[in-house]
């Protein structure tokens, strides 16, 4: 019996039949129209059949069968120093099950204009096989299934690549179009420029026959009369299509100056509402794209080259980008708007590198486009710096090495979270090693608190890092699968894969010793660069590199049980919580808070754990002692009567790091009552409204909790300028049952809902209405 998906709550299907045929290269030719909020044009797919079941004679390697534990490999030109393209990770929101799509036969889904739209009522997800079988069979026709949603498909045709002048040099059989495509894809890496050129020429070749196609909610299905196998199916096809203004892969909005822009948003459905594609992680491909827009706009994409516009007639410009490293379709990124280039001021005219295209041998490993929220740009540099370090870490974990099963999101986000601290410490060259260590321990303390909140306020089934257990990595016979909780809007805001993954790697690094661990990590990256992995690939190699004396109670099975396949706080981490509380910078904020003065900073610890700790350097210890009673000082300020004697001494407060301010405000949030006078002093002394978004968020929580009406403007500003980070505040405003706060929440939502991403807007709407 077919299962009807709830498009706002259920699992998300990956329906592409990648076991039978793979897209190896995309050529996109698109026009961006801001007036109609539509992107329209063509995409040409260059396909290869049977990749799962045979190895090619060139440098390419094929995807391994799903039951194998070996890491999957994908094609990558040599040498391996190929630029990665984007900070969207393989494993962001993806999962597997054994569901496949059930075809609809010859049902007519044409719109009034003769095109086929993805129909909301035609989900057709079933655990049965395809009604129209997509594999090799006797009498029925082969069906190419692509992941596709919120698109209007106008036409599908085979491309006559044999008509391209000069193409005969690639094959001894110039009339066999599929053979031409195969030979073109098999060109060696050092001929990448020639390969891209001929891909472009082939994409402009005339059509040689329209193909039959149909759509449902999640897929585009294409077939050719008489083609019974993937080998017989055309290996170069052109799809003419247009996006829809409400499509969930891109956002049409305005920038801070009110000028129109459009960009990919990291949607739970990835790019399937931007172009028809193959979503499963095994579907690695290269691409090139030509995008036209009005000459006043700048087109940015996740390409390896720095594109310059080509002026066209009628005030339009054309931009061209490409990538030569096979990547998942979800990493394709576009942003069109009135962007301004800002170059580093420290560079002299002689130092500024000229814009040029990078060859695979010249390129580095850094991402070529990173999206940062404007929330990271205010306050001090720490929030922006750490977030940027996190995204750069995805160049290795998430892009150069990807998860074979996208439910194992921790393989991307856990590693990036762990490495962001290392990168940020290196970026702060003025920091002494012990100061960098103290900052890392403080962030570990804050992450512990966030993980506690997460496991207490989320469904247990969404706290498991390896939910498919022994079925992890398995797909259906066609290659299709299901992303568990993929359409649940709350999943976007969960951090459990980041936090539990981070603490697992921290635990392993401590067990091995950091020098040994990072030496191993470099070896691991070298070994698995350009491959898809499962958790056991990392853990097995790690354990092989651990000396016997450091292995007690460590095994792949034990780590699966304690860290990856259970909900809640892992047991090994429970045993480390006291050490987290003894971080020196944390104790500068919270130590020596007696039961009579305030609630303990760490209510899960015994009182003896909340005291000053010995420190290996005296200067820092003395400094900590001066700051140790910060919370207690604020508690005393809060308890003083409004009118006090002149002779009462003023408390002296020292400057705190942003992370220390976060911890201080979290402790004060535990207080039952904080007076308006205390809140006013807090804002004045620490200039809270000018701090970064993490600090301002806690400040807004205090404002809401204690109904500090004089600072409601700070809450309004946060909700409108820091939209995604403000989701929790909407809940607090509504739970307060205060009419003024509830009116503030509804007013801010109405002002900003059109600019919010759809997942955020759905969650807030549920809170408010």
UniProtKB/TrEMBL annotation:
Listed SMART domains: Leuk-A4-hydro_C
Cofactor list: Zn(2+)
UniProt entry keywords in alphabetical sequence: Aminopeptidase, Hydrolase, Metal-binding, Metalloprotease, Protease, Zinc
Residue intervals of the Peptidase M1 leukotriene A4 hydrolase/aminopeptidase C-terminal domain: 626-768
Signal sequence, start to end: none
Pfam families, sorted: Leuk-A4-hydro_C, Peptidase_M1
Annotated family: Belongs to the peptidase M1 family.
Protein name: Aminopeptidase O isoform X13
Species name: Bos indicus
Organism placement in taxonomy: Eukaryota, Metazoa, Chordata, Craniata, Vertebrata
Gene for this chain: AOPEP
């Amino acid at each position: 019996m077919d299962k009807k998906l709830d498009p706002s709550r259920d699992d998300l299907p990956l329906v592409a039949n990648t076991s039978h045929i793979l897209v190896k290269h995309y050529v996109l030719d698109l026009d961006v129209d801001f007036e109609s909020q539509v992107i329209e044009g063509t995409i040409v797919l260059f396909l290869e059949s049977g990749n799962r079941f045979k190895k090619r004679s060139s440098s390419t390697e094929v995807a391994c069968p799903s039951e194998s534990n070996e890491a999957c490999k994908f094609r990558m030109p040599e040498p391996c120093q190929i630029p990665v393209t984007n900070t969207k990770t393989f494993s962001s929101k993806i999962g597997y099950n054994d569901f496949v799509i059930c075809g609809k036969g010859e049902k007519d889904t044409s719109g009034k204009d003769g095109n086929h739209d993805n129909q909301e009522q035609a989900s057709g997800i079933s655990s049965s096989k395809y009604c129209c079988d997509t594999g090799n069979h006797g009498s029925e026709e082969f069906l190419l299934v692509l992941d596709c949603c919120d698109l209007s498909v106008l036409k599908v045709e085979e491309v006559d690549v044999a008509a391209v002048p000069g193409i005969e040099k690639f094959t001894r059989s110039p009339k066999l179009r599929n053979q031409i495509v195969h030979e073109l894809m098999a060109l060696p890496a050092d001929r990448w420029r020639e390969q891209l050129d001929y891909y472009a020429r082939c994409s402009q070749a005339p059509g040689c026959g329209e193909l039959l196609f149909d759509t449902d909610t999640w897929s585009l299905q294409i077939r050719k009369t008489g083609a019974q196998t993937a080998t017989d199916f055309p290996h170069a096809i052109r799809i003419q299509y247009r996006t829809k203004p409400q499509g969930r892969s891109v956002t049409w909005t305005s920038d801070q100056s009110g000028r129109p822009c459009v960009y990919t948003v990291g949607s739970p459905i990835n790019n399937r509402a931007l172009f028809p594609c193959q979503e499963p992680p095994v579907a690695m491909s290269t691409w090139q794209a030509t995008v036209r827009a009005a000459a006043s706009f700048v087109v940015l994409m996740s390409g390896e080259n720095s594109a310059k516009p080509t002026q066209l007639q009628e005030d339009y410009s054309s931009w061209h980008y490409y990538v030569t490293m096979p990547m998942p379709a979800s990493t394709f990124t576009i942003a069109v708007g009135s962007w301004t280039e800002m170059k580093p001021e420290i560079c002299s005219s002689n130092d500024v590198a000229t814009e040029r295209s990078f060859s695979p041998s010249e390129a580095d490993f850094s991402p070529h486009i990173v999206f940062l929220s404007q929330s990271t740009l205010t306050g001090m540099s720490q929030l922006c710096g750490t977030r940027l370090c996190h995204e750069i870490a995805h160049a290795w974990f998430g892009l150069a090495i990807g998860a074979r099963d996208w439910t194992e999101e921790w393989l991307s986000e856990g590693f990036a979270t762990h490495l962001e601290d290392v990168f940020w410490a290196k970026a702060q060259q003025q920091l002494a090693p012990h100061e960098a260590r103290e900052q890392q321990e403080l962030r570990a303390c804050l992450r512990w608190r966030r993980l506690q909140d997460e496991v207490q306020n989320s469904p247990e089934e969404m706290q498991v890092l390896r939910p498919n257990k022994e079925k992890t990595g398995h797909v259906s016979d066609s290659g299709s699968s299901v992303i568990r909780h993929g359409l649940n809007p709350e999943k976007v805001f969960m951090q459990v894969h980041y936090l539990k993954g981070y603490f697992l790697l921290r635990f392993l690094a401590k067990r091995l010793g950091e020098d040994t661990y990072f030496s191993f990590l470099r070896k691991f990256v070298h070994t698995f660069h350009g491959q898809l992995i499962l958790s056991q690939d990392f853990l097995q190699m790690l354990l092989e590199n651990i000396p016997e004396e450091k292995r007690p109670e460590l095994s792949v099975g034990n780590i699966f049980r304690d860290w990856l396949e259970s909900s809640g706080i892992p047991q090994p981490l429970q045993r480390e919580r006291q050490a987290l509380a003894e971080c020196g910078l944390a104790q500068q904020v919270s130590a020596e808070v007696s039961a009579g003065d305030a609630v303990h900073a760490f209510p899960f610890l015994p009182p003896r754990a909340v005291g000053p700790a010995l420190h290996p350097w005296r200067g820092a210890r003395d400094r900590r002692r001066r700051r140790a009673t910060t919370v207690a000082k604020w508690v005393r300020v809060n308890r003083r009567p409004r009118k006090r004697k002149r002779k009462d001494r003023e408390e002296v407060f020292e400057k705190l790091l942003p992370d220390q301010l976060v911890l201080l405000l979290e402790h004060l949030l535990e207080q039952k009552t904080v007076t308006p006078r205390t809140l006013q002093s807090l804002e004045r002394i620490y200039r809270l409204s000018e701090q970064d978004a993490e600090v301002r968020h806690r400040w807004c929580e205090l404002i809401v909790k204690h109904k500090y009406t004089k600072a409601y403007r700070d809450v309004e500003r946060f909700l409108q300028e820091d939209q995604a980070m403000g989701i929790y505040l909407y809940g607090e405003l509504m739970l307060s049952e205060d009419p003024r706060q509830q009116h503030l929440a509804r007013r801010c939502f109405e002002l900003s809902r059109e600019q919010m991403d759809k997942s955020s807007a759905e969650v807030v709407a549920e809170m408010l209405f």
